[in-house]
Amino acid sequence: MNTTIRVAHTRDLTYIDKLQRQNAGSVSFYPLAALERAVPGHLLLVDINGEPGGYLYHGSFEGVCPIFQACIDYDARRAQHGADLVQVFVAICTGAGTHAIALRCGSELDANFFWGAMGFKCVGITKGGLSRRRDINAWRLEIQPALFALPALPPSQRRIDTTLWRKARKMGASTSQF
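The structure corresponding to this sequence follows.
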């Protein structure tokens, strides 16, 4: 397979928006207008045999660079494409003088194993929102040596608790169909 990593262009936004909607339970949702402002410069795309296969949406390279979303097409997962994308991103951050990379990941997602395998350390666990009632793992990769290192924690693997959602549904409350 021929894999290339490149900066995303406006023409790629339809694909990125489609992929984020397909994975709405796993990634945060960003309106198309927000993604448009991220082009060019804050979206990387992985092309697999000339077709888009995933993307990474990130913030500023100053200090700690956040990853807002990272998603690989379902059919292309577990084939090194996500690892290639992250390795290129880490190299870009290193060249830009970024101190660290940070991201947040829902505790029930298999992506937690991926981030750990990529060298990221879980440095915090917070409670998620009321609808999913899950934990959120905070992951961090130090690029420049930190003066004070955050201790690594075992990431939470707590599953989604939909008890409240089911109760509201039984009572006839409207729910989002996103």
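The two ends are 33 Å apart (CA to CA).
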